[in-house]
Records
---
Amino acid sequence: MKTFKALALFAALLVPVTAFANANIVIVNNDPPGIGFNDPTPAAPVGGNPGTTLGQQRINAFYYAASIWGATIDSAVPIRVRANFGPLSCTATSATLGSAGARSIWANTDNIREIDTWYHVAIASKQAGYDIAPVGNPDGADEVDLAASFNANIGTPGCLQSSGGWYYGFDTNQTPAPNGGSRINLVAVLLHEFAHGLGFSTFVNRTNGQNLGFPTFPWPDVYQKRIFDRTLNMYWDQMSAAQRLASRVNTGNLSWAGATVMAEAPGVLDLVPQFSITSAPGTGNYAMGGAEFGARLDFPGLAGELVAAIDAANAAGPLTTDGCTAILNDVQGKIAFMNRGTCGFAIKVMNAQVAGAIGVVIADNAAGPAIDMAGSGNRPFDLAITIPAGRVTLATGDVVRNALLAGTVNVTIGGDPNSVRRGMDSAGRVLLYAPNPFIGGSSTSHFDVSSFRNVLMEPNITGNLTHSVKAPEDLTLAQLRDVGWYPDADVDLVEDGDDNCPAAANADQANYDGDAQGDACDADDDNDGVADANDAYPHSNMQATVTIGTCNSNASNAVMPNGATLMDRIGAIVAKNHGDFVSQVSAITNEAKKLGLISGAEHGAIQSCAAKN
Amino acid sequence: MQVSVDENGQLRQPTAAEMQALAPKARPSVMRVLTSGKAVGLALDESFDHMYVVRTDDEGNFVFTCTDDHSEAAAFAAKTAAVDTVLRIKPQTQRVRIAERE
């Protein structure tokens, strides 16, 4: 059995590392020789994955996914993932791609933030600061935090061969596959499944609604404590088992109420798209569908002159208004208007972009709602589209066409500021997947499929996902923050927001001078103006005046050039007798006076106190 | 119903071992309790894992789902009633998002 540390891969693959890549995720290769991760079948490097065998590419993809999480979450305790790549159930048209999950949950571990609450083992270890279930533990607890098993046969005869198989690249250019199919992005699937094992899952019994340890340990899990039902106005841990069973199918009313997700969701999820004509005739707001490619549409959106784009009527598109070939008229700096049909939405938008348009509005060619536009299925092509685009109904298209006949048309394409963001509820919570009827394991342990743009933790991974797990692309990291993966860059068990040295480990938070910086990161702990590196007394007695015994001289407690204060020097005196003490104080005060640090009167006052002591 | 195919491609009754392998993984009714000092743990086996399952729809497009219910996963892959449920719920909810390519 071999183990690999995800962070080591960063160096090997020259992937940029932040100064604080703070979780060390160890992949424990559980495959036998010649199989899975050890498969010697030659393979050409793809998408930044330098592996030259199938086995290398698989383990590299695991490293890469692990390194993304490792660079994102913070833990002083290595997260161990037992992984294998073997045969799982598969047919020509269906397959189990893989599975993953936590190997234990724990309650009431050291430093845990919420007592009598089940936590995924990796969170419990993070908060404890040590491995709850270490290698060789006497209790027989699984020594790994997560286990992951993935299907090695995808893309082979009899196992989704038409797909083209796994895509092992580190980018998202999985489509099209060489055989024309849609390869499945392994890194995206791994990021999703790892998140379940790290904390994105509830353990409520799907049969009876009870908490997992019921009745002996009837505690809620940390995930369910953030699930909120706005109909009942209750969190799941406040409900009875029967209420939870009813709540899990309360479609559109079950949401994630964690503070981090709620704070970050507006930057991730879009407003409902809106098309506005700001000139007459036709002035008004109209429903619009968004696009899964190009720039996001938000408020206030993109304003500009709308012009009808004209292209050749040819085999690629029989109309001069379908935008299926190069745009022939001047749309430079304008919003191009074209009709749906014949070719894909992404092709039309790309043609407009190439012609210099700043945005695109596509009118439907049949009656119906303003549905979102999907990408072309060719990821590199879709990623090259940078301008925003929207889709309006046939009726709205007619309004536009009439307006264009009347003269200049000015429009805005953007998000409706009065709308509820897509995938959220009106209180700013993010909806959880709660279909009716209930779907075991999918319901509640995913974000809702209405999220737009798509997020990683919807139950179905979509082809337009990035590999980012944090805002503004995604909410998964925010969710993990909510369940206990608090930011702790120096992994000293003090959350960054409360840490007086967030980049230097100092669990004791020692802060000698009581300023904003703890001693571990303060260049001058006692704030005496002498840098600690040159300070003979970095933690000087900084009281304002010199006191000896009960006698306050009211003389300034001056700082000597080496960083010692008069009080430091006097306090360090080892005297044979009172006379010797007075003599040594005199030597110190004479030195200070010569340096101009105290006046003659102060010198005398200190000597007077020394004599009285 | 579960069947197996022999080396000649003929359907046959699966063996007891094959039946066991094909059966959906049920969660254990009693979990092993772990301890570490004052802390309490529950050991989880693969029946708690989330599985990612894919199948092709009638148009050849991939349909994905993620579930920790092994019987749901098997039903999804086999396109049984449970699968139809997955697909059917989409138009019922106003919150679902559907996108078209062209």
---
Amino acid sequence: MGEMSKTATTVDTAFRFRSLPMKTIKPLLREPRVVIAGGFLLILLLIALFAPYIAPKDPLEQDLMLGNMPPANYPGAEPGYYLGTDDLGRDVLSRVLYGSRIALTVAFVAASLSAIIGTLLGLAAGWYGRWVDRVISRLVDIWMAFPPVLLSVLLVAVMGSGLHSVIAAIVIIDWTRFCRVVRAETMAQARLDYVMAAQTIGFSRSHILWREILPNVAPVLIALVSLEMGIAVIVEAILSFVGLSLSSDIPTWGGMIAQGRQMIHQGWWVFVFPLLALFVTVLAFNQLGNGLRTALDPVMRR
Amino acid sequence: MTQSFVAIQGLSAISTRDAGALVLRDVSLTLEKGEVRGLVGESGAGKSTIAKALLGILPFTVKITGGFIRFEGRDLLSMPRRELADIMGRDITLIPQDPQTALNPARRIEAQLTDGLRLRLGMGKTDAHQRALQLLDEVQIRDPKRVLNAYPHELSGGMRQRILIASAFALNPKLVVADEPTTALDVTVQKEILRLIRRMQEAHGTAVIFVTHDLGVVAKICDSVTLLYAGKVIEDGKTRDLLTAPKHAYTSALIAAGPRYDRPDAGLEPVPEAVFRQLRAEVGIAERRV
């Protein structure tokens, strides 16, 4: 730094993209993980939204005459059932497509709620310190001593199965993840001189927290929300697998995997396709999260 | 003798984290209107603690145990919070140490430069914008319109430090506390920044407390110097007197320790252990702390 000529060129190129949205989006598009994973998830979102129009069959319609049909191109395949049928004659493709609805609902709602709760507590602990920090940090420590899967099974067992319970279980377990990261990041930001400068100008502590610190914590937070969505999809699948999520007439990937596991020798396709959907979706969320973390970091962005 | 503009008397402080270790020992110094005073010392000598005490932003791990800081005759330490808040950021402002972290990376320069104008002077958006342009011009930034629209990471360290200086002088303060404002810059930029601070200080008639560990910087910018060791004032006086006729062995040793550009082959002269022994005896500590 220091050379004035270099400074001038930096400013010039930066100003060609002056509008804020363009400035925010551009570095994101330069990150291949964000483009590929984000693109896949966008398509998945469209599939979930328009599942009734896309799915070739009714995912609940049983036809016992057509049970255990293999996917297309395999001997004995039934035309129109591209990924085969399960033992009740339901179309696997349609059920996988419909399964994305539950997966994405859980991902978005559970990740957002745990992000909100964890962020509020993390900001408070990191910024106000002292007893606020001590109380919240001890709470997190105690919380994290519970085995998560066991705790979620227990919670769903107590609250009764259903979409709400699954989401509640994920939120109740995973807010600590956000709380710890946001607390650490808030503390790191609070030590920087710009916070001190804002204090001497005379802004209130809460103003500094929301207007100065939160925008700088946001990149880490956004990346973490994406990772959490992947985790939420997995947890939902685990709970469906052990039969604690939704009743079996609503297609979920976890439920399909559980069902397919019992008949894996008669029809592997009932097991493999929802597993594949689950795997790719979680991978996409993770890669999007990692990509966002790199792309949004103001230091790496430079 | 008339009341000094700023008078620190018998200021003592302890660190609550470090088992009650003294960070300031009975520090006294005065500052007149328009004077530039250097606070010099090694790391841990307490120069930043004094600066932070003046600004009322001491970390809660440091507790003041005695003394006064009088600003225009009023004691800052016993002043009600509200009155203090009125002085801080308006009559007393800060030029921070590190231009990399002293600007919020998520906000445009204009927003950060006009914060004080709008909050403390109640300026409207357009007035504040005009004043910001003026200020950037005053600190010799070319094309201020573009810079106002930029984010900090788009600017060089020297540019950022200029913006911070503009921001510190924006409200016509009576006292500016400069906390090692040139430490993070390379030497050529450092010189420009020192000149700029001196020029702004003269133009606004502002007093400056200049925290640094560099006697060369002191020689260039300060009217008077206070040398600290382990939280205690070792020597105090006009810059010229202190640098040409030092009274304390530590002062002379520090001056001798500087590199001699006229004799590049001569090795660097460390401060002799005997001087540290003498310092420890005077301050009353058993071990060298840094």
